[in-house]
Design goal:
Helices cover 45% and strands 15% of the residues. Helix 1 (7-25) crosses helix 9. A hairpin with a 2-residue loop joins strand 6 (136-139) and strand 7 (142-145). The chain folds into two domains: 1-197 and 209-223, P-loop containing nucleotide triphosphate hydrolases (Rossmann fold), CATH 3.40.50.300; 224-320, Magnesium chelatase subunit I, C-Terminal domain (Helicase, Ruva Protein, domain 3), CATH 1.10.8.80. The protein has helices spanning 7-25, 32-43, 58-68, 84-88, 122-125, 129-134, 169-172, 186-196, 211-222, 228-243, 253-269, 277-288, 296-300, 305-315; strands at 48-51, 73-77, 89-94, 99-104, 111-115, 136-139, 142-145, 151-156, 177-179, 247-249, 293-294. The strands form four sheets. A five-stranded parallel β-sheet has the order 2-5-8-1-9. It has 320 residues and is α/β, with parallel strands linked by helices. The chain has 14 helices and eleven strands. The radius of gyration is 20 Å and the shape is globular.
Amino acid sequence: MEARRDPAGLALSAETLDRIAANVALVVHAPAETLRLCVLCLVAEGHLIIEDFPGVGKTMLAKALARSVDLEFSRLQFTPDLLPSDVTGVNVFNQRANAFEFRAGPVFANVLLVDEINRASPKTQSALLEAMQETQVTIDGESYPLERPFMVLATQNPIEYEGTYPLPEAQLDRFTMRLSLGYPQLAEEARMLAEQTTAPPLETLEPVASTEEVLATIDEARSIFVEESLNRYVVALLRHTRASSRLALGASPRSGIALLRVAKARALSEGRDYVLPDDVKAIAEPVLSHRLILAPEARSAGLTAGELVREAVEQTPVPV
């Protein structure tokens, strides 16, 4: 195993991750592991979709994460009449200069909150594809790079499907993780009511990490060591889902890349310079479940994608 060149940088990055997660927890009353996964997604340079009931704090979570790391934040409310140019920007003719000039859209931010992503048409949804995959936007044949870090935080309501456009598999596959917050515990919800009706904590939330610190943590996570046997373990896990008769579509190679990137971030958060199989196991469900399509017989049996991911993890031999 290769030795780390900068042990101090490893410890500093782990402390930065803890600090960001603790700061978000001041605003959002959700399980600590859920908030930690949101921060890991940012450090893995991934994108996050939060699917949950109305009013549980999905939008507040996105805002709290952006404010905690002092990044440029932008919000888009997806509606059926929204156009792709409303997302990416448009070339406008400047009469004084007698030339077209580009006016950047909301996608040119570090953290982009897309509220109710399934309410916009597929054409508008697809405006995010290039940005999410290649960190750039192409307008009229010219490409414009987006600043790092770049993260799309999308929200979706799982119980209202009237007038919505379900995300195609190609776009779901570009989201690194799908999480849900759930309803808070009784004591937490009572405390939240007291906070939100007197002095909402989001209004006074201060950044606890600079953009430079976030970028340094991202670079640190990228350099975490992964043994070759662990790469094969991830591939075996993916192939288990592809071979399952209860799945019409298994996990893609892109999902394996996402799995390892988040596993690296998790190892970093625990102060390790190498990935363990437990890192992969811990994040397999939120990374893989939304990418799988159940076969009709599995749906009729009441199975969920999460259950099949857990079964795959249990049945795939761990490297020793």
